Design the sequence.
């Protein structure tokens, strides 16, 4: 199997490393305009090209992964689909080119796979299962935040996509977490939002957003999203008459309250946890592996993707409504 990774930054290198863990014999080529990244890729055994045109002219591939900044995705996806390649893409955050690329994928008869890594987390899948089994009314409170300069400590936050208002840090958090919340609790029928800026960060968007969501099934959610919290935080609590779940974002922090003992009982959803020490402890490699395994299953015609461009259009529509409120 030959795969092409477009974008050899932190995510592109992560995808390459994890793909080799899944398929040791996979051949990987990459595209990046930065000479330093191409040189590093060569040392990792990745054939590197300066442009997508050069890569497509030099070789044929079984699929491609788009791991560049979100605003560049639409054009790259379109070019890869035109070449007849199945496409895996990282989070887009904007719906540029969605309708056209959905149409192209159908015309070419190739998969168009959209990353939504939180749908692959063992903890979110457990929360969804317990909420569905409970079948009674529930509400939730959820705070997600991390100081923006700490997202990529090796580069200035103004030099990668979170510095752009269209793909900013708050929008990225919504783009990461709303898909699993909508999958678990259902469509949103109404919301209220409050936004402000409480930091000295040089960004052209609010750094703190509070939203109350009303889901179609009656569930209410209080969502606090920020790029200010000095400690990376992901605190989730779901409660109803007879169900109480707690999660602090990492696999060792999922608990369910047991009424009989009067104690919170730990819930283990992973036999073994893989993590990258460069990131906070709520970034789990296992979910990235499971997501890539799903993509490979889709390529083999054996599985269906857990997320789609069609569903993401609805997610982006909600994000934009919150931003414009």
Sequence:
């Amino acid at each position: 199997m030959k795969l092409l990774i477009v974008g050899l930054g932190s995510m592109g290198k992560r995808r390459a490393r994890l793909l080799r863990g899944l398929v040791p014999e996979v051949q990987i080529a990459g595209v990046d305009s930065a000479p330093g990244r191409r040189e590093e890729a060569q040392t990792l055994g990745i054939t590197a090209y300066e442009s997508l045109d050069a890569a497509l002219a030099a070789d044929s591939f079984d699929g491609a992964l788009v791991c560049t900044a979100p605003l560049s995705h639409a054009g790259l996806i379109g070019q890869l689909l035109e070449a007849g390649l199945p496409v895996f893409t990282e989070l887009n955050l904007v719906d540029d080119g969605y309708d056209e690329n959905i149409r192209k994928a159908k015309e070419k008869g190739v998969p168009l796979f959209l990353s939504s890594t939180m749908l692959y987390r063992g903890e979110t899948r457990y929360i969804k299962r317990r909420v569905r089994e409970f079948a009674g009314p529930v509400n939730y409170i959820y705070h997600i935040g991390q100081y923006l300069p700490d997202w990529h400590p090796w580069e200035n936050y103004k030099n990668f996509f979170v510095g752009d208002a269209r793909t900013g840090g708050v929008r990225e958090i919504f783009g990461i977490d709303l898909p699993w919340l909508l999958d678990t609790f259902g469509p949103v029928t109404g919301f209220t939002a409050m936004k402000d800026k409480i930091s000295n960060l040089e960004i052209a968007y609010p750094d703190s957003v509070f939203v109350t969501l009303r889901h179609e099934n009656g569930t209410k959610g209080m969502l606090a999203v920020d790029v200010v919290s000095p400690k990376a935080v992901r605190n989730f609590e779901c409660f109803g008459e007879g169900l109480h779940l707690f999660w602090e974002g990492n696999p060792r922090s999922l608990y369910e309250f047991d009424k009989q003992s009067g104690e919170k009982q730990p819930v283990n959803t992973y036999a073994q946890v893989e993590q990258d020490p460069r990131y906070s402890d709520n970034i789990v490699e296992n979910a990235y592996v499971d997501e890539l395994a799903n993509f490979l299953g889709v390529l083999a015609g054996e599985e269906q993707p857990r997320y789609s461009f069609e569903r993401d259009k609805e997610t982006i529509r909600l994000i934009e409504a919150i931003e414009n409120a």
Notes: The domain at 118-284+308-324 is CATH 3.30.360.10 (Dihydrodipicolinate Reductase; domain 2).
